[in-house]
Design a protein that fits this description.
Blueprint: H1 8-13, E1 23-24, H2 35-45, H3 57-77, E2 84-87, H4 90-101, E3 110-114, H5 123-132, E4 135-139, H6 150-154, E5 161-167, H7 179-188, E6 192-196, H8 208-211, E7 215-218, E8 229-233, H9 235-239, H10 264-278, H11 289-315, E9 321-323, E10 333-338, H12 343-352, E11 355-356, E12 359-360, H13 365-370, E13 378-382, H14 389-403
Parallel strand pairs: 1-11, 3-4, 3-5, 5-6, 6-7
Antiparallel strand pairs: 2-8, 7-8, 9-10, 10-13, 12-13
The structure holds pyridoxal-5'-phosphate.
C-alpha cells in the first residue's frame, strides 16, 4: 500500500521532462529534475550576483545561496552545515580527499576498498596508495547473493589500515552493506571510513553519524538536483586536514576544500531539490525540514518497494532471465541479463517502446567483473520518486514481449 501522503501524480506533475512521454528507469545514472529546481537555477542566473561578500546585494545573494545550500545538505545528511563541502562531482571530491589523506600514508600503511563499489570509490584510493607505496586490500562480495558482509572487512582490516572505503549502496545491484558494523571494524583498527553515498542518498534516509561514516560523498543530480558533488564530514575532522589549495583562497573550513568559485546556481538548485524531497510526502509544512525529510523518505521507500515487488515478480518469471540484485537490504535498482541476449539489444528494444533502461557496467567495473559480466554488464532498471505503476507495467510488458515471455 502506498503511503497516504505520497501522491505520485502530484509529484510527476512537477517534472516537465516526464511530459516527453518516456518511462524513466535511468535514475541511477541521473534523475529527472522538478520544475522548482530548474526555477531556482534560472532565478539565480538571472538575478544580480557576484562573489560572496557583505557589501552589495549581489554579494549577499551569493553568500546566502551558499549558506542555505550547506544547511539543506546538512538536513538531508543529518550533519553540521560547517562540514558540507561542494565540488564538481563525487569523483572529483574523492580524488581531492584521497590526495589530501594520503599525504601522511607511506609504505606499510593499508587501505581497504570493496569490489562492490563504483570505480569512483576505488581508483582514487588505489592511485593514492600506489603514489605513496601503501598497500590496497580488497573486501569481496558474494556474487551469488550480492551480499558484502562485515566479515569481508574483518578479514582484511589490520592495525595498519588507514582508511576503509565502502559504498552505502551499489549503483549496479543495489546492495546496501551494513555500514555501522563495517565502521565498527574499521574504527576498532584506528582507520577512517569513507562512504560513497551517491546511489544510496537518493533512496534511503541518510544519517551520516548513525552510519559510522567519517566522510560521506553524494551527488545532487542523483536525487532530483543539479550536477555537482557534496562531501560531508565533521568540521573537526576537516580542520585536521590540509588539502592542496591556492595561497590567497580561504583557509577556513569548509571553504578550504572548495577549489575555485562555487556554482551558485547549482547550489540554489540543490537547496530546491532537498526542499522538494522534504515535501515528497506532504506533512505539516511548519515542521523542521529534517523531520519532513524523515517522513518523506519513509513514504518514498514504501512507494519504491511496492513498485519494485510488482516489477520483480514479473521480471523473475521471464524465461532465461537472471537477476543479480539479490541482497536482503537493497535499493530499488535491478540488474538483469537474459540468456542469449546482448543487454544493449534489450536496451534498444525497450527504447523503441519509450522505456529508458540503460545497459552496461556503469563504472562499477570490479563489481561487474566479479559478477562474471565483464565489461558488458547487464540491463539496469532503477526506480525514482516519480516512477508510477504505469511505468512498471510498460517496462515489464516490454521485456516480456522482447523476451517472448508470457504474462
Ligand atoms: C555509486 C556511485 N558512486 C559514484 C558515482 C560518481 O558520481 P559523480 O558523477 O558525482 O562523480 C556514481 C555515478 O554514477 C555512482 O553511482
Amino acid at each position: 500500500m502506498t503511503h497516504p501522503g505520497y501522491d505520485v501524480d502530484r509529484i510527476r506533475w512537477h517534472f516537465p521532462a516526464l511530459r516527453e512521454g518516456a518511462a524513466h528507469f535511468d535514475g541511477p545514472g541521473g534523475s529527472q529534475v522538478p520544475d522548482t529546481v530548474a526555477t531556482a537555477v534560472v532565478e539565480t542566473l538571472t538575478s544580480a550576483i557576484s562573489n560572496r561578500g557583505t557589501v552589495t546585494p549581489a554579494e549577499r545573494r551569493a553568500d546566502r545561496i551558499v549558506v542555505e545550500a550547506r544547511e539543506a545538505m546538512a538536513d538531508l545528511l543529518a550533519m553540521d552545515p560547517r562540514g558540507i563541502v561542494f565540488g564538481r562531482s563525487a569523483t572529483e571530491l574523492t580524488f581531492h580527499l584521497a590526495r589530501t589523506l594520503s599525504k601522511d600514508w607511506g609504505p606499510g600503511d593499508e587501505v581497504v576498498v570493496s569490489r562492490l563499489d563504483h570505480d569512483a570509490n576505488i581508483r582514487p584510493w588505489v592511485l593514492a596508495a600506489e603514489a605513496v607505496g601503501a598497500t590496497v586490500r580488497w573486501a569481496d562480495f558474494d556474487p551469488a547473493t550480492g551480499e558484502l558482509p562485515p566479515e569481508a572487512f574483518a578479514a582484511v582490516v589490520t592495525d595498519r589500515t588507514r582508511l576503509v572505503a565502502v559504498t552505502a549502496a551499489s549503483n549496479l545491484i543495489g546492495t546496501r552493506p551494513d555500514l555501522p558494523a563495517i565502521a565498527e571494524i574499521a574504527h576498532a583498527a584506528g582507520a577512517l571510513v569513507w562512504v560513497d553515498g551517491v546511489h544510496a542518498t537518493a533512496h534511503v534516509l541518510t544519517d551520516v553519524p548513525e552510519s559510522g561514516a567519517d566522510f560521506w560523498v553524494c551527488s545532487p543530480y542523483k536525487f532530483l538536483g543539479p550536477h555537482l558533488g557534496v562531501l560531508a564530514a565533521s568540521p573537526e575532522l576537516l580542520e585536521s586536514l590540509h588539502p592542496d589549495k591556492l595561497l590567497p583562497s580561504s583557509d577556513a573550513v569548509p571553504e578550504r576544500y572548495e577549489l575555485g568559485t562555487l556554482p551558485y546556481e547549482l547550489l540554489a538548485g540543490t537547496t530546491a531539490a532537498v526542499d522538494f524531497l522534504a515535501d515528497l510526502a506532504l506533512t505539516d509544512p511548519s515542521l523542521p525540514r529534517r523531520e519532513r525529510l524523515v517522513a518523506s523518505f519513509a513514504a518514498l521507500e514504501e512507494h519504491e518497494d511496492g513498485l519494485l515487488a510488482t516489477l520483480e515478480q514479473r521480471l523473475r518469471a521471464i524465461p532465461g532471465l537472471t537477476a543479480y540484485s539479490n541482497a536482503k537490504h537493497r535499493t530499488p535498482t535491478l540488474l538483469v541479463t537474459v540468456e542469449g541476449r546482448d543487454p544493449q539489444e534489450l536496451r534498444a528494444a525497450l527504447a523503441e517502446r519509450g522505456v529508458n533502461a540503460p545497459a552496461g557496467h556503469f563504472y562499477a567495473w570490479d563489481c561487474s567483473h566479479h559478477l562474471g559480466l565483464g565489461a558488458t554488464g547487464g540491463l539496469r532498471m532503477g526506480l525514482a520518486p516519480y516512477t508510477n505503476a504505469d511505468d512498471i507495467d510498460r517496462l515489464a510488458t516490454g521485456l516480456e514481449e522482447i523476451c517472448g515471455g508470457e504474462r
